[in-house]
């Protein structure tokens, strides 16, 4: 499965917006995401990609743009 | 029993900074020339810790040592358990509960009237060291912390610039700084920040904070009590409003000033203790406010209570509705924070007030998201949002201050 598309689908479910043209947009600063949405995102990512992301590993600054999320998921998939 | 030692409470007066700067010189020179003198740093920390907890405060010092031994046994027992590949939820919950028990007991016992308990309870900064311990246990549970080094752990818990009131650092972040020596360029930048924060701290705590807290606040308090008692009823007057703004300013400048000192001294030591405040009074809503006010505490509550509880509840599908879940989590977070401040009605009400405010804020944000086209957004609405948030926040601090209790019931 294409990681980028998978991440964008999850973000689309959460925010109601297609973010494919704003891959470097900070989605916390613009109010699209908050803590509750990130919890849901982590759960969805775990289900979809079969990766393990403990809450401890969630640092906002490392997950705040679609591109960063894709990169994180890819690195966790390769572990 | 009392020893005739000098006792120095952290950052309390100008002499303290003179002693501190003299003691820092070897550390500064060391880091500048590429060495971290860990032994000297340890002695330096122990001396300044001793100065906090000696003399008339010696019983607190004993309590600190007992607490430290207890939490060390707990942390390393849990680590031993985790190293055997086990990760039961009940063991984890038990470890967290045991870690919190001393703090909970202190909060409970200090709710009694003064002197009704025959011994000294707790010690300065017990909350902040407890938060650090709980954080380490939670990250061990997640496997994010694999191995706790006893010496680094002790240094982390007892890091003296932040021991009394934070900011609350994170173990993994602290360890990274503590184990390396910054490059000369990086350290020169650190020193620039350290000096700037130090002087900003002086301005905040000893000048602006002093005017609001020591100069104006007692006068306003006296007037508000006199006029309130003459008015009767709810005893409200314009003085209460003046108290609200004056106290809010005092609270910010005093605490932000203190936090700046703690961050400044950390930077002198090449440790990037996180900032606690980021212009909280220009927040455009309550959520934004909590990302700017006492940040290391609110992020601690966000990461270790709100997110963990939500994650757990969502995974177990305890709530059908995500909005309901977020509201429950907010109430949980702010009620715990209220109880942590103290077992008094106004701290609990303060917690409920903020939980309600943030839920209303979320409702508004959802409404706004659905009606983007109809709702105007311009410079005026931005200023109005800041103005409204500021007043909601100041009102919450009026509750927090306990002044209403003093006005209505004659006690705080």
UniProtKB/TrEMBL annotation, chain A:
Origin organism lineage: Bacteria, Bacillati, Bacillota, Bacilli, Lactobacillales
Primary location class: cytoplasm
Cited function: Carrier protein involved in the D-alanylation of lipoteichoic acid (LTA). The loading of thioester-linked D-alanine onto DltC is catalyzed by D-alanine--D-alanyl carrier protein ligase DltA. The DltC-carried D-alanyl group is further transferred to cell membrane phosphatidylglycerol (PG) by forming an ester bond, probably catalyzed by DltD. D-alanylation of LTA plays an important role in modulating the properties of the cell wall in Gram-positive bacteria, influencing the net charge of the cell wall.
Recorded GO MF terms: D-alanyl carrier activity; ligase activity
Post-translational modification: 4'-phosphopantetheine is transferred from CoA to a specific serine of apo-DCP.
Gene Ontology BP terms: cell wall organization; lipoteichoic acid biosynthetic process
UniProt-recorded name of the protein: D-alanyl carrier protein
O-(pantetheine 4'-phosphoryl)serine modification, residue list: 35
Family: Belongs to the DltC family.
Automatic annotation (TrEMBL), chain B:
Pathway(s) per entry: Cell wall biogenesis; lipoteichoic acid biosynthesis
EC number: 2.3.1.-
A Gene Ontology cellular-component term: plasma membrane
Gene Ontology molecular function, alphabetical: acyltransferase activity
Main location class: membrane
Biological processes, Gene Ontology terms: lipoteichoic acid biosynthetic process
Listed transmembrane segments: 16-33, 40-58, 64-81, 90-110, 116-137, 197-216, 236-269, 346-365, 386-409
Record's keyword terms, sorted: Acyltransferase, Cell membrane, Membrane, Transferase, Transmembrane, Transmembrane helix
Membrane association type: Multi-pass membrane protein
Location of the protein in the cell: Cell membrane
EC class name: transferase
Entry similarity comment: Belongs to the membrane-bound acyltransferase family.
Cited function: O-acyltransferase that catalyzes D-alanylation of both teichoic acid and lipoteichoic acid (LTA). D-alanylation of LTA plays an important role in modulating the properties of the cell wall in Gram-positive bacteria, influencing the net charge of the cell wall. Catalyzes D-alanylation from DltC carrier protein.
Family annotation (NCBIfam families): LTA_dltB
Protein name, UniProt field: Teichoic acid D-alanyltransferase
């Amino acid at each position: 499965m294409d990681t980028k598309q998978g991440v964008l689908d999850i973000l689309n479910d959460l925010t109601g917006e297609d973010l494919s043209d704003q891959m470097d947009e900070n989605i916390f600063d613009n109010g699209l995401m908050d803590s509750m949405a990130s919890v849901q995102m982590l759960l969805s990512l775990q289900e979809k990609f079969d990766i393990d992301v403990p809450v401890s590993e969630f640092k906002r600054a490392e997950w705040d743009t679609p591109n960063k999320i894709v990169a994180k998921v890819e690195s966790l998939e390769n572990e | 029993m009392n020893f005739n030692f000098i006792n120095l409470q952290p950052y309390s007066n100008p002499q303290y900074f003179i002693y501190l700067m003299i003691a820092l010189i070897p550390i500064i020179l060391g880091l500048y020339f590429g060495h971290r003198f860990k032994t000297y740093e340890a002695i330096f920390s122990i001396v300044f810790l001793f100065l906090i907890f000696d003399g008339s405060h010696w019983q607190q010092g004993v309590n600190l040592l007992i607490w430290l031994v207890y939490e060390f046994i707990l942390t390393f027992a849990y680590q031993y358990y985790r190293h055997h590949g086990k990760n039961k939820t009940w063991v984890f919950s038990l470890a967290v509960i045991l870690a919190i028990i001393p703090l909970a007991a202190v909060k409970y016992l200090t709710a009694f009237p003064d002197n009704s308990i025959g011994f000294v309870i707790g010690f300065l900064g017990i909350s902040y060291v407890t938060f650090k311990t709980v954080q380490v246990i939670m990250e061990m549970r997640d496997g994010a912390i694999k191995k706790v080094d006893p010496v680094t752990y002790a240094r982390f818990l007892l890091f003296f610039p932040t021991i009394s009131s934070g900011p609350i650092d994170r173990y993994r972040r602290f360890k990274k700084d503590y184990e390396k020596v910054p490059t000369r360029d990086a350290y020169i930048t650190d020193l620039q920040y350290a000096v700037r924060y130090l002087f900003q701290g002086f301005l905040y705590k000893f000048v602006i904070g002093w005017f609001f807290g020591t100069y104006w606040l007692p006068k306003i308090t006296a007037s508000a009590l006199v006029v309130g008692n003459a008015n009767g009823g709810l005893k409200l007057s314009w003085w209460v409003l003046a108290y609200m703004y004056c106290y809010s300013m005092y609270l910010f400048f005093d605490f932000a000033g203190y936090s700046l000192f703690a961050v400044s001294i950390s930077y002198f030591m090449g440790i990037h203790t996180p900032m606690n405040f980021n212009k909280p009074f220009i927040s455009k809503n309550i959520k934004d406010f909590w990302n700017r006010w006492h940040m290391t505490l609110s992020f601690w509550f966000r990461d270790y209570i709100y997110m963990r509880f939500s994650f757990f509840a969502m995974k177990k599908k305890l709530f059908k509705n995500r909005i309901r879940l977020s509201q429950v989590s907010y109430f949980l977070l702010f009620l715990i924070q209220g109880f942590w401040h103290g077992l008094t009605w106004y701290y609990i009400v303060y917690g409920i007030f903020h939980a309600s405010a943030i839920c209303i804020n979320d409702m508004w944000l959802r409404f706004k998201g659905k009606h983007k086209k109809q709702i105007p957004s311009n410079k005026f609405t931005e200023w109005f949002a800041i103005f409204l948030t500021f007043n909601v926040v100041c009102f919450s601090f009026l509750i927090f201050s306990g002044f209403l209790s003093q006005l209505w019931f004659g006690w705080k």
